[in-house]
Amino acid sequence: QVQLVESGGGLVQAGGSLRLSCAASGRTFSSSAMGWFRQVPGKEREFVAAMRRYSTYYADSVKGRFTISGDNAKNTVYLQMNSLKPEDTAVYYCAAVSRNLGTYYSANYDATTTYDDWGQGTQVTVSS
To answer: How far apart, in whole angstroms, are the C-alpha atoms of residue 118 and residue 93?
Structure first.
């Protein structure tokens, strides 16, 4: 099992930036896919961004503002969030895939059911 620990959340004004980190332990993620999701109370968890090898994927709502990246040596994936908006307020979760999904992942990277392991979440609040 992989343990994922998110950090970097907090309170920021609209237009500001935050960088979330997700540290993975238990195995390296260099050959796995990693993703970020977010959730607000009363709503389903929604896809934000993901990466696998040299491919990255983004939700339309964050494209051009958020960037996902990884550091294999540190077993850490990051989510750089710029030009934050109040509607970005949510608990952000890191997720990992432990299986080799092949082409299945390319078509299902935005589904919560694709991911095997989840972090505990970190709160991001954007004030207007």
So the answer is: 7
What is the pLDDT averaged over residues 59-70? 97
Positive or negative, the CA dihedral 84, 4, 29, 100 is negative
In order of 17, 26, 53, 62, 119, the CA distances from 3 in angstroms are 26, 6, 20, 26, 7
Q: Estimate to the nearest angstrom the gap between the alpha carbon of 79 and the chain centroid.
A: 6
Confidence of residue 1 (pLDDT cuts 50, 70, 90): confident
Whether 88 contacts 126, CB under 8 Å = yes
d(CA 34, CA 32): 7
Angle, CA of 84, 46 and 60, to the nearest 5° = 55
Contact 68, 36 (CB under 8 A): yes
Report residue 25's pLDDT band, with 50, 70 and 90 as the boundaries: confident
Percent of the chain whose predicted confidence (pLDDT) is above 90: 80
